[in-house]
Amino acid sequence: MSITDPLSFRAGKLPLLISIPHAGTRLTPAVEAGLSDAARPLSDTDWHIPRLYDFAHEMGASIVIGNYSRLVVDLNRPEDDQPLYATATTGLFPETLFDGRPCFIPGKTPSPQERQSYLQHIWRPYHQQLQSELVRLKNQFGYVLLLDAHSIASVIPRLFEGQLPDLNFGTNSGASCAPSLSEQLIECCQHQSSFSHILNGRFKGGHITRAYGSPQQHQHAVQLELSQLNYMSETEPYSYLPERATHLQQLLHQLINRMLLWGENHYQS
């Protein structure tokens, strides 16, 4: 089986790396052949996140994007597939969708050998790129900021009650970044009233935030999970809605500026 271009990467000139692990829609032949009817629309994709954050590269941020669907292998799960949450979740090789329906037709899941190939040729290259860029930026600036960018449907009863807040910040309960950085992000959100927000609520950060966030090493990671209703249609064909997205992008621009300003001030003092 040939796996090509597992990721897209654009280097920047700021001490900021944006990781987008779940926007990919590519499938391997084995996964495509085995998907259930419920899974074929790829509903659990972080739809349009690269487009939503495209302005950040123009600002000077580095961006790495996974090209393959999370139904092939989930880039935001640990290699040993240890659960990240005590509540309902999905694993390194998802067997169910977020709503609990099966991803695969019975007897049609990819073989263990195929999945090991996905780990080797999709998961590891993504994390190697993350690691190498974090090292490059930290060597250049003395510190580095990592924003792990995600989105999810606003209502998923299996995962959380009611409607999800619009912006869900995760810092591994405060372990993945300096408290003063998350305080700056929350303060920025408090200066507007259009979007609700929460820190370390249902989503505290996945593997990427937990593995690469190390304030003691001058490496600060924040996960931001966006409610999809604010920039796209939550039903097929999951269309991007520019008139909604523009308002959200303005806030994202402010948040990224806050991160960068915090870094300058924190490491100059």
TrEMBL record:
InterPro entries: HutG_amidohyd, N-FG_amidohydro. It comes from the Bacteria. Transmembrane segments: none annotated. Keywords: Hydrolase. GO terms for molecular function: hydrolase activity. NCBIfam families: hutG_amidohyd (TIGR02017). This is N-formylglutamate amidohydrolase. The lineage of its organism: Bacteria, Pseudomonadati, Pseudomonadota, Gammaproteobacteria, Enterobacterales. The gene is hutG.
